[in-house]
Amino acid sequence: MGGYVAVATTSKDGTVVHLVDSSGVSDVMPDPTLNHCDGNLTRSGTVALEEFLREPFFDSQLGSLTAEFQTYNANFQSLTKVTVLFQFSAAGNLFSHRVETQTLQLDISHSWIQYFEYTYLVLTCFYFFDLVYRIGKGFPTYLRNFWCYVNACSIVGSISCFGIWYFYMPTLDTFRRTRLFQDYTNFDNRSDTFGFYILTSSFAVFTIYLRMLQFLGHTRSRVVLLLRTITFSAGNMIIYILYIGVIFIGFSTFALTSFSSVSANFINPWVTFVSTFSLFMGDLRVMSGFNTTFKVPFMWLFMFFFFFLSVQMFNAIINYAYNRVSEDMKSVFQREQLEKQLTKTKGERSFWPFQRKPKAEEEDGLTYGGAMKGPDLTTLDPAVREKVEEYRERDTKKSAKDGLCTAMVYFVMVGCYIGFLYVNMLVEEKNQLRLAVESIVRQTEVPMLLPYSNRTMLQTWDDISTWSQVASWMQVGLPAVVFNSTAQAFMETATSGSQQLIGAGMRCLRSWNCLITGTGNGGNSTRIARITQKRSKRLPNQGSRSEATPQDERFIGGFAETGDEVQGLLVNESGFFQIIFPDVAQNEAEDAALQFQLVFENQPLCQTVAAAAGGSYRKSGGIVCELSSNIATFERQLETMLASSFFVKESASFVIELVAHNSNRDMLSYIVLTFYQTPAGKVHKDIRVFSLALFGWDVGVDKLGYFIGRLLPGAIYMTLVVAFTIMLYQEMQTEHTRRSVAESAEKSGLFTTIFTFFASDVFRPVDAISYLMSFWSFVLFVLWLVKEGDLQQKLQGNYGEIVDFASELIAQEKEYNRISAANLLLLFVRPLRFIREDPRMQRLNQTLQDAKTDIFWFIVVLCIVLFACTLLANVSFGPFFPGCIDISASFLFCFSFILGEFDFWSLYRANPVMAVIFFFPYLILVYCVFTNIFFAILDRFFVSADPPPMKLKRKLKPLLSKICRCIDWDDDFVMEEDPKGAKKEGPQSRADRVAVTAKIIHDIRKGLDGDSGSRLAQSKPLTEVCDVDEKLSNVVKWSKEEAASIVSEFQNLLVKKQRHKNEDVFLKQVVMKKVDADETKTREEMEEAHRQMRYAAEVHEVMAVRDQQTLAKYIWLLEQKIQKKMTDKHALMMEVQHLQDEMDKMRFTKEDLRNQANGVGADVPQEEDEGSASEAELGEMIQANVASASRVPLDPNSAMEDTGRSDPATADMLKALNG
């Protein structure tokens, strides 16, 4: 790119600068005395660095300055090019400065990774041929499938990765075995190739993981619902983004014009666009740091239009799309629900394999105890069966209702637990101690040697960045922290504690946190600090990280053109290739076999301690040194350690342990200062202060009230926990008894009862887990108290044992702390159980219950998309951005986008191209789409029914009725709605409006328009039009079968069509042949039906006419016979009446007859009564004869077949018919 070039070289004699001759004709030969050993470097002169800086190289015309150099890391076997850029503006200020790094891995050989590569290549080829087959089979329909392009991008990305990688490897081989690594241009070319490989790899990984949604979409309808929602809303979202994009550009232009002179966030169009987009997403930090006239109006208008209106418009689009797709897929969900019910009713298998089979009488209907099984519900209507099952399981699903007394006792238990933790944990005091100790360590300034210089400067803990600074701080800063943090005048106050933990002359941190001392290994001196060091292995640098790397794939440092080795390996030794954490034992890179021992004044100062043995940090082993409590001895010990190769380049970690006591709060503190470095050379440091409140068992009688105050709340809490545990057990026992009597033997097992008992109510497992954690924490607390009782004995022993004891005590208290925190969370979930009977809470719970399936699959889809983007960010930005250095960090970084926390410029500095491709689509997807889908799910399933009015007096009557008698507690009238009356309809929800709209659109698409489209013609079910009898049911069944047959035929044609590439050939060879065959078959069936019709007209109709004539004659003769019989009956009745009148005249006088006619009774002789009865019987016999004579057989043919009858009337009729 032009400019002036100079090359600097460094040796033990100093740093010199070579002025590069751009003409390339310099005849200056290499001079090793001037660090010039490369004949390819053409130089016009060489000067010392100090002289070079004094020359006018840095003058007023300097526009930019770039410094480039390479580093080699033998641990990672990598080469890194470092570029430091300085850019000055025309105004004379430093416009920008940054550091860029490009790293190439030299050792890429793996013994087993290649098999995964080959497998991946084979599977990629398989998916490629599968895609080609599907496109050819379903062309052009399959091209309209979104996943077709996702699969294509995945395959192209994967094949591109292989192509670039196998192009990159041969060039890397020449790069490792020749001197090309010294050429910056060659290094940049390989770095660009590898960057393109990263780009293709990130897309391949992203699309591969995203294809999991395709597989889920084939099996899960809820996943299909979410994917269709995104697809359905995509068009409207794009149109709306384009619509507001015009206004957005206007606001960006206004911001660029108004704020570019006062804020760096609006200095050019690109930066302004990113800043306004960040403001669109709610990041107000871009508007901080300046103040102008238009700042407030711009923010108000911009945020109102974009952050409020536009975000709500996104919500409306997503909500409509979700509800619309839900309405379209309602039939699918109903079918799945029906299939689930049918599967459930087929038979329930027990999860307990050793459960005995029911006996024969149990299979017939009897269960254990003589109870009868319920009736079979499979024959009932599904709606009726659901209600019956709900009624039968009302006791199983209904949990015990907690009364007011139970709730009050529970809150007392929670209050006691919180009080117990407050007086024993002392969280505020622990935090105060931590802040005090950290401020001491961080604010202590000590003179430390500057890196790569002989000068010193006052520096603090936060300034430590190199391993040499760590050694300097431990030599100078550690004594300053331990011995100079408190004036001597305060020492006597610190030694007046009741336990006498601190002796006279001891040192304290911030006056009150006095350090505890102990005897050394020899027992002649006291110790105040312990240092644990771990060292790494030192191995010969063979140009590879593993012995399995072939010799031709190792980095050798370069050869001359003649083939002779000019410069061997850049570093002769390599160290650890993984981090050696100070609290992890048996690390592969740790030099555990090292035996180190350091003696000071004939006493052991440092020695190697094996892992799993006491005397080291967390019993992880290492080199352990215990330092004296005397300041002079302490400093001399550190000097001895520095002079005796204690601080060497093999040192991987240092841990400084201190134990302090605060007599004001009677708290023991365990202080840990940690240093460790990575294989790349980065130094990590940490300060940890762990504190716990002591009980002081040795003075228990004097502090009896103090003990009672600390232990009494815990005792009450554990008592109530036992009581609630017994209540839970009794409830489970009652449930088991009920199930044993009411249900079959297959469902009444103990394990089945336990599972059903806890599964029927979500609060029961929460209670059980909380009680178990309470008992567990109680045991840990007791063990903690017992262990603390040994504190006084430990304080009289070895200092290493004191530190180990404090570490173990803190670890046990830390475990108790974690369990207590989790238990508190569960305890505050249980109060929801007391208010779940409230109608308003029931509405919220029902909303979550109805939406649980959609929420679950929404989380699954979100996690898949989130993890796919995590892999994309890790591959694309991980090598350059610390926020994506590994999978966990990348996941947290991507998840923060959902919460509205994002940083574009960090990604842009890491990878500009991928930052633009990744940032904007991902932010819109997760922040605008997925969050609104979640809101749409809750909105659709929200139960909007109005709750009943709250009767406050009725609820307070059991508590206050006997106290406040002046209040009429029964006077609590609330106007309730008529349950039989029509309910007042409330405002229509979004889901209802979408359902109505979807119905209208569906009817329009189906072509169900009314008269000229004026209104929709609503169809009616068949049951409302006519009565469905057996014949009509058969017709409906036949029509369904015919419709299914037609649909099946067309589906078969569709499948055959996808196999043919040419549509015209398919129509001619397949469709037309089938049409001709169907036409021939239909014509034959029509002709056969015509023949049947003619036969029926010629034969069956003649027979029917003859039968009708015969029936008509029979009916006419029967009518004549009936008329004749009726005439004879009338004549006979007249004769009977005449004879009756004559008989009465003979038996009675006229006066008797007159009295009978007027209703006057008269005595009638017995024989007259009998006579009259005989006459009545005679009349009945006559009527019976007449009726038997008038009987006519229903079937006219039956009379002709019955030859055994001798009825004369029938014989006359037959003669008339035959004649």
Automatic annotation (TrEMBL):
Principal location class: membrane
Membrane topology: Multi-pass membrane protein
Keyword Endoplasmic reticulum: no
Keywords for this protein: Membrane, Transmembrane, Transmembrane helix
Residue ranges annotated for the Polycystin cation channel PKD1/PKD2 domain, each copy included: 115-325, 759-942
Residue numbers spanned by region Disordered: 1158-1219
Domain of life: Eukaryota
Pfam families with a match to the protein in the record: PKD_channel
Localization per record: Membrane
Segments passing through the bilayer: 118-136, 148-168, 194-213, 225-255, 267-286, 298-322, 407-427, 711-729, 768-786, 855-873, 880-899, 919-943
Protein's UniProt keywords contain Isomerase: no
Protein name according to UniProt: Polycystin cation channel PKD1/PKD2 domain-containing protein
Lineage of source species: Eukaryota, Sar, Alveolata, Dinophyceae, Suessiales
